[in-house]
Each structure stands twice: as structure tokens, then as C-alpha cells.
Amino acid sequence: MTALSRYASGVMLKAETIEAEKFRGYKWRSVGHLQVVWIKPLTIGKPDAQGQINDLILSACVDSSKAGAVDSKGKSVRLPGTPAQTVDEMRMRRIQGAWKADYAQSRKPATC
How much is the pTM? Predict the structure, then answer.
């Protein structure tokens, strides 16, 4: 789970840590991979004193049709009706030179 802090901070890090603990407790594991179909900026923060932008909100279309989770016997634990594609809005922050997901604004079923 220490790798999570390389990619997430704040509320998002806490949520992803809880999810990872849930997976560990149930002995689930992720399979496959997500695909980001497109990304576009929604808002861009103001530059700081050094001219760096450290805050932005992105919208991304994420395809999870080739990803999922399985239990210890390899049986899918994906809930029925889970959308295969979503449009996610995410607040991103630059922390010590690295961009990290900070807060999920929304996630809506969509077609990319």
C-alpha cells in the first residue's frame, strides 16, 4: 500500500487505502487493466510565486471493461450492473514535484 502514496493524496489516498484493506481482508485481487480513453482539463489553478500550477481538475473517460477483481478462487466479484465506462472528474495536486489524485469530484456512467 505504500505505493498508493506515490499516486494519491488527501481524501483520495484515504479512500484507496480503505479499498486496498478491503481487498486484502477478502483476499481479492485485481485482474486486467483500466484504459483511460481521453483526458481533458476542466479547471486549472493559478500559478504560484514560482510560476508553477499545482492544482487542476481533470475529466477522464475510463474504460474498465477489461478490468475487475476476483476472489481467492478466481471468481469475479464485480457487482452486477457495474458500468464498463465512466467519466470521472478528479482534483489533481502537484506535491513535491509529482502530480497526485487528491479528490474524486464525481464518477458517472458514460460511453466513451
Answer: 0.84
